[in-house]
Amino acid sequence: MSSSSPLLDTLGRPLGDLRVSVTDRCNFRCRYCMPRERFGKQHAFLPRAELLTFEELSRVVGLLRGSLRKVRLTGGEPLLRKDLADFVAMLAQGSGPAIALTTNGVLLPQFAEALARAGLERLTVSLDALDPAVFAAITDADYGVADVLSGIEAAARAGFQRLKINCVVRRGLNESQILPLARRFHGSGHVLRFIEYMDVGSTNGWRPEQVVSAAEIVDCIDRELPLEPLERSQPSDVAARYRYRDGGGELGVIASMTKPFCGDCSRLRLSADGQLFTCLFATVGTDLRAPLRAGASDEELSRLLRRVWENRADRYSEQRQQQLLQPKRKLEMSYIGG
Ligand code: SAM
Predict the structure, then answer these.
(1) Which run of H or E residues covers position 126?
(2) In what order do the strands lie in the sheet with 286-287?
(3) pLDDT tens by residue, 84-110
(4) Of the residues 118, 137, 153, 202, which has the maximum number of CB atoms within 10 A of its CB?
(5) 75 lines ligand 1 (CB under 6 A)
(6) Mutational pocket test of ligand 1: of 333, 335, 336, the residue with most ligand atoms within 8 Å of the beta carbon
(7) Torsion of CA 195, 201, 206, 211, to 10 degrees
């Protein structure tokens, strides 16, 4: 697909980003994402044969190359997928979209160098708390804050000097962590970003009163570490940007609930088993794996990809805000890719 004619959906939004979930497994059991009661020992994760192979994924990325600015690898926990750095190297060959990765960070001491060598350009680490007890209450995992911080340090040593550190804020759980996180990453060169807690999936019992708004978060930080707004770097960027007035670097807030950004959304998602979704809140996908495995030609696959994007009309978050949508069963973030 050529870069000279951008692929536009029914609302005139160009395709720009692909999020690839490389696994539905995770080594955390965050209460708001993969609660243990639902994702315990009895849970049937996708069998290996159902996951798209790296060759299949590379082929899809190759077909979309002309349209994409960025490919983000996510999951589940993407670093649980064996030989992920080899896949990054496959994607990073030649000129093409920037390759990005979102991770909980605890396996970075093992993999950061290989990822950097493979050509990974951007790295985002999720970290919802610095207080060990709060972190444990959220993640319900065998890892602690120190493991994530070691991952961040390993990434910096491997050359990732400007990480994004993402924190989802849920009222009653970790709003106490906003200031400690801001203090910790102020002046570090990394960009801390706070994300409003979203109504993704149906297992986390999301309630509107649990959302801490981006405006509240900015106020809370600004009182101690004064901030000033910056321009967004791209219209499709999800984060509103701020900088510390004292030169301590940049901060972002993602107002997914209070200021939805569907109008500029340029993201296509591919689940680990090869379903294409045109929205994080989509309930129905388009199967790409069946034609891939039935021997479809590049032309046939390109036509399918083009049709999926050109038929796209999703604007779930805006409609939710206007109360046009009734709650319905939604897909889990660990499946569709966070
Ligand atoms: N395992 C990787 C990680 O921890 O970053 C990638 C997948 S995880 C699903 C991606 C991000 O989605 C995490 O930062 C997580 O906090 C966020 N997330 C999960 N459920 C969310 C929700 N309901 N609202 C906002 N963010 C959510």
Answers:
(1) strand 122-126
(2) 227-230, 240-244, 250-254, 191-196, 164-169, 122-126, 98-103, 70-74, 17-21, 267-270, 275-277, 286-287
(3) 999 999 999 988 999 999 999 999 999
(4) 118
(5) yes
(6) 333
(7) 20
Q: Please give the model's pTM, rounded to 2 decimal places.
A: 0.96
pLDDT in tens, 165-208: 999 999 999 999 999 999 999 999 999 999 999 988 888 889 99
Rounded to the nearest 10°, the torsion over CA 22, 274, 32, 190 is 40
Alpha carbon distance 219, 212 (integer Å): 11
Rg of the chain's alpha carbons, rounded to an integer? 19
Angle at 255 between CA 105 and CA 34, to 5 degrees: 45
What whole-number distance in Å separates Cα of residue 312 and Cα of residue 300?
A: 19
Whole-number Å distance, alpha carbon 125 to ligand 1 midpoint, is 10
Alpha helices (runs of H) in 5-105, residue ranges in sequence order: 54-64, 84-92
Q: Give the pair of three-digit tokens for residue 51.
A: 């996951």
Measured from the CA of 166, which atom of ligand 1 is nearest?
A: 14
